[in-house]
Design a protein that fits this description.
125 residues, mainly alpha
């Protein structure tokens, strides 16, 4: 059935639309476009989803605020300050106190390698 209908349509000739009809159809459209002012380019660009663009702007504002609040000297971040002799002595004393605690585990049978004071001075100094 569709084939017959399509053949019938293909045999039809196109007739031009009467000029008065064209004027009657386009007059209201032209009047409506003349009354509404054009929107700015940025509104047309952001129109598909203004909430998404607003969220993106808020995220960038947060990034800038956090960047401004961050400490300015980031070169020393993550670096351990050098250990002085007083700190080393304090840590050694604390390790001895922990080893002498009554509830500490018994010393392991494996002997740790012995270090001379000279090797300690080279590592810390």
């Amino acid at each position: 059935m569709n084939d017959e209908f399509e053949k019938h349509l293909s045999r039809q000739s196109f007739r031009p639309i009467p000029q008065e009809w064209r004027q009657d159809i386009l007059r209201p459209a032209n009047a409506a476009s003349a009354e509404s002012p054009g929107k700015p380019w940025w509104h047309e660009w952001l129109w598909p989803c203004p909430q998404a663009w607003g969220g993106l702007a808020a995220a960038w504002a947060l990034v800038f605020v956090l960047h401004a609040a961050a400490p300015s000297d980031s070169a020393n971040v993550g670096q351990v300050p050098p250990m002085n002799w007083q700190t080393f002595a304090l840590l050694q004393h604390e390790m001895e106190m922990i080893a002498q605690a009554p509830d500490s585990a018994p010393p392991s049978p494996a002997h740790p390698p012995r270090r001379s004071s000279r090797s300690v001075k080279q590592n810390i100094g």
